[in-house]
Amino acid sequence: MAVSIPKKLSLDKYGPLIALVVLVIASTILYPRFIEIQNLLNILRQVSYTGIIALGMTFVIISGGIDLSVGSMTAFAGAFAILTLNAVTQSLVTFSPFWLRSFLSILAAATVSVAIALVGGAMNGFLVTKGRIAPFIVTLGTMAIFRSLTLYIGKAGEFRSVNSVYGEMGMSVILGVPLPVWILFLLAAVLSFVLNRTRFGRYVCAVGSNEKVARYSAINVDKVRLVSYVIVGLMVGITAILISARLNSLSSTNAGKDYEMDAIAAVVIGGTAMTGGKGSIWGSVIGAIILGIINNMLNMLGVSPYLQGLVKGLVIIGAVSIQRGWITNGRAEK
Amino acid sequence: MEAIVKTEGITKEFSSVRVLDNISIEIHRGEVFGIIGENGAGKSTFIKILSGLYEPTAGKIWFDGKPVEIRSPADARKIGISLIPQEFNLVSDLCVYENIFLGEELLQKNGFLDIKAMVARTRELLSELEVSSIDPYARIQNLSVAQKQMVEIAKAITFDSHLLIMDEPTTMLTSKEVEILFRLIGRLKARGVTIVYISHKLKEVKRICDRVMVLRDGAFISLEEVKNIDTDEMARRMVGRELKGIFPEKKSVAGEVALSVRNLSVEGLLYDISFDLHVGEVLGFAGLIGAGRTELAETLMGLRLSQSGSVTLHGRPLRLRNPWDAVHAGLSYLSEDRQGSGIITSFDVVKNITLTSLKEYAKPFINQKSEVEKSKFYVDRFSIKIPSLSAKLEQLSGGNQQKVSLAKSIDTGPRVIIVDEPTRGIDIKAKHDIYGFIRELANTGISVIFISSELEEIIGMCDRVLIMRGGSIVGELPQERLSEEEIMYFATGIKGGY
Q: Which range among A48-57, A194-203, B95-104 shows the weakest confidence by mean pLDDT?
């Protein structure tokens, strides 16, 4: 009775992890200093910004959608984080003690950043569900809108923070591990639980697998899809804080550039099907790390930065074609 | 008799589970070759091997006396084998002639599409099939199920098939359309086309087939001239034992009114629908395809919005604006379209069963243990045959999928359940089981709305029957007046006004 098909399933499930292990071993052989703890922490820090966005993107893609606006929205929310930070810092300039003043201004900046990104995500979700517009089109539109607004407000220049504590927070290291890395893993743990153990998570998979069945199963399909865009918005808001704090400034032209590509790539490499229906949060984390390691190795081996996109592209295409092979056993299904 | 297809030792295994065991047969040129068996007996696997969708684990095939290897549907088509599948392979955004010539378009000398020739040929084919009412320019999505099937058949015979495989061709057809299909089979046969005919409807097999092969649990049971075997004997061989009384005993104790529908209307679909459903009653809804029965069910479930009318459940008025309100109020729906709106084929058994009722298991986090326990309960109760609880639904046979779908519909704890074509496309054994479960549900006080196009089961199952035509209820028959003739009088408009 219990003769199932564990072999295929386990490859399906652990494929990205196996790829990561192979990549780490290969990198260590090619370049022994790769495995040094400082280098590894650097890689993790670098991938944590788009990695956090990829967590939210996983929900959107499983539900059958896509969000191209995350990069622009990061810049937009980050810009407002810094503007708020500066405004609050300056208006509280006589307020003491110093630590409380810094805390309040950072709190205000973070709140604004998250609130803006939540509203942005909800707007995407609303247009997709109530507006009945394809997610690709909606978020292509909002991608342009958020970038344009950021450039306009920043006059195509930089938003500079006047609060040095903000920058220190961005560079802070807790128990030897950078803050963004902590946040990435913490959020991954929470969202993985949400995906696997809550009604919302199950519904996201159902909606992405077969929207009509979901509707007939009394699932509020529009709400599920809307919430998935709100979640990615929340992740964007958090990333916007971390990235603007890291340099204690934010470039209106460059901030968040190509984040949508890196986040989608991480999700896909992590084994989530672009067609929706199933996926894994930890897979997306692994996907993001794989991308980071590849970048790191290409740098260390002195490959031209112009060629790094080529390698990234090949990895994405390769990952998907391998997954397709695992799932259908190399044969097109009916 | 000359053999067009000969198989020797055809065997198919899926991860070491043998689903087809050592089939060695000959199909004669120009015959109608019936294959019968329960779901999971191996019928579909066998024809999928013949049409190149599966490769056999072992065994050989000869076509026209020559050994062949059929690796893909394209291979099969090349040697002259066409499959008309149960789930159609038509592109719904393209029109009829485009579908018929898809991938094999006719070209003018200058390389452009020869649309005129394709349309003309399509018209010819359709009139040959006696369905010239189908416009070659009509989009597939605007056709009825029966019309789609005719297009599938037209597509198959365009390309000179020597062997035409029909998988459950009459499941979706009205009796008039079945007659057209049978006449067509007669003409194809006269042209020397060989037909492999799979059906659960033994009367049809008896009528249309020359020989019939019986499969059971993947094994060959018998192959015999149809004239030497009656339908009872076919059924016995399929299940391997005697089937007595396929319908459970009725136990009509008309309780109080559970669901009361008054003057319900949906523009263009339903007109002034009023009826009462009693506690523990199995109320049949008969009618031709398109009479509005499914639309009524969808309206009650909040999947369609009504313009006027009222619905009360146990005296309490319901506002049915969306499906979750309907489920919360105690209504449940088993869809007629199992794979399209009933189950998620890529989900496992457990996740399907608890999909609608997930709230009960998530407080606020999903209790996987109680999900699994509940699923085990249903698997036992409905004798669902599965390799394991984590098996995906796509691995199950139609009958077992339907049982999972039924379990899903009752796991919400409904007071009223609407079952829409609950036995479509499933075998006798599973039908028998499902009839029994539905009657059991009614006996526990659940009210059942039983929608079916099979008059036999409407009469066998229902305590009372309403007949719909053109979006209205046109007649009501109490149990003692139920007969196929009476129902058809109402359904076709001989009785019941207008």
A: B95-104
Q: What are the residue ranges spanned by the domains of chain B?
A: 3-239, 257-492
CB count, 10 Å around CB of A82? 27
Report the top-level CATH class of B257-492.
Answer: alpha beta
CATH 1.50.10.10 fits B3-239, yes or no: no
Class of domain A6-328: mainly alpha
Judged by CB atoms closer than 8 Å, whether chains meet at B356 and A217 is answered as yes
B70 contact residues in A (CB cutoff 8 A): none
Distance CA A237, CA A228 (A): 14
Q: Do B358 and A210 touch (CB under 8 A)?
A: no
Q: Kindly report the pTM of this predicted structure.
A: 0.78
Query: How many angstroms separate the CA atoms of B27 and B157, rounded?
Result: 19
- A277 CB near a chain B CB, below 8 Å? yes
Beta pairing class for B211-216 and B219-225: antiparallel
Tokens of A245: 């704090």
* Residue A205 contacts B where some CB pair is shorter than 8 Å: yes
Rg of the Cα atoms in chain B? 24
Name the residue ranges covered by the structural domains of chain A. Answer: 6-328
Q: Which residues of B touch A (CB under 8 A)?
A: 15-17, 53, 85, 301, 303, 322-324, 326-327, 333, 335, 340-347, 351, 355-356, 358-359, 362, 364-366, 368, 387-388, 390-391, 408, 412
Cβ <8 Å between B366 and A199: yes
Q: Is A12 on the interface with B (CB under 8 A)?
A: no
CA distance A298 to B373: 51
**DSSP string covering A134-167, please?**
-HHHHHHHHHHHHHHHHHHHHTTSEEE-S-HHHH
Q: What would the pLDDT profile of A232-248 be if each residue is shown by its tens digit?
A: 999 999 999 999 999 99
Q: Give the DSSP letter of residue B250.
A: P
Determine the distance in angstroms separating the CA of B133 from the nearest CA of chain A, rounded to an integer: 30
Number of cross-chain residue pairs from A and B with Cβ atoms under 8 Å apart = 83
Least confident of A74-88, A164-178, B98-112, B299-313: B98-112
Which of B323, B358, B365 is closest, CB to CB, to A216? Answer: B323
Q: To the nearest whole angstrom, how far is the Cα of A126 from the nearest Cα of chain B?
A: 18
- List, for residues B288-333, the tens digit of each pLDDT value: 777 899 999 999 999 999 999 999 999 999 988 999 999 999 999 9
